[in-house]
């Protein structure tokens, strides 16, 4: 018998009601930074990854299914709460 084990990624959902959201706005929406200015600094210093790659563009558009991570936590952009 062959058993396959998958690691479940515990991504925090960031629910949006639009087609996309900019990275700095997503960070504010997820309450991980106190202001847009601090989001800008964290992004420009290379402390944020988008889909596994360091991103320094604060205006980067994120669409449902995209993931970003900051400070060891992973966030998933979604239109509705995942089941």
Please provide a written account of the structure.
The protein has 83 residues and is an alpha+beta fold. It contains two helices and seven strands, in the order ββααβββββ. Helix 1 (23-29) crosses helix 2. The protein has helices spanning 23-29, 36-44; strands spanning 12-15, 21-22, 48-50, 53-54, 61-62, 67-70, 73-78.
Summarize the structure.
The chain is α+β, with helices and mostly antiparallel strands. Helix content is 19%, strand content 28%.
Query: Could you say which overall geometry the principal axes of the C-alpha atoms support?
Result: globular
The percent range for helix content is 10-25%
From the N-terminal CA to the C-terminal CA, the straight-line distance is 29 Å
Q: What percent of residues are in strands?
A: 25-35%
Helix/strand-derived class? alpha+beta
**How confident is the prediction overall: mean pLDDT?**
88
Radius of gyration: 14 Å
Q: Note the total helix count.
A: 2
- Element pattern in H and E: EEHHEEEEE
Question: What's the count of strands?
Answer: 7
What composes the largest sheet?
Answer: 5 strands, mixed
Instruction: Trace the largest sheet across and list its strands.
Output: 1-7-6-3-4
List low-confidence stretches.
none
């Amino acid at each position: 018998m062959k058993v396959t084990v998958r690691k479940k990624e515990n991504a925090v959902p960031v629910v949006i009601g639009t087609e996309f959201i900019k990275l700095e706005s997503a960070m504010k929406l997820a309450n991980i930074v106190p202001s847009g200015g601090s989001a800008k600094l964290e992004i420009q210093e290379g402390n944020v990854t988008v889909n596994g790659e360091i991103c320094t563009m604060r205006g980067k558009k994120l669409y449902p299914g995209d993931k970003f991570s900051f400070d060891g936590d992973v966030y998933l952009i979604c239109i509705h709460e995942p089941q």
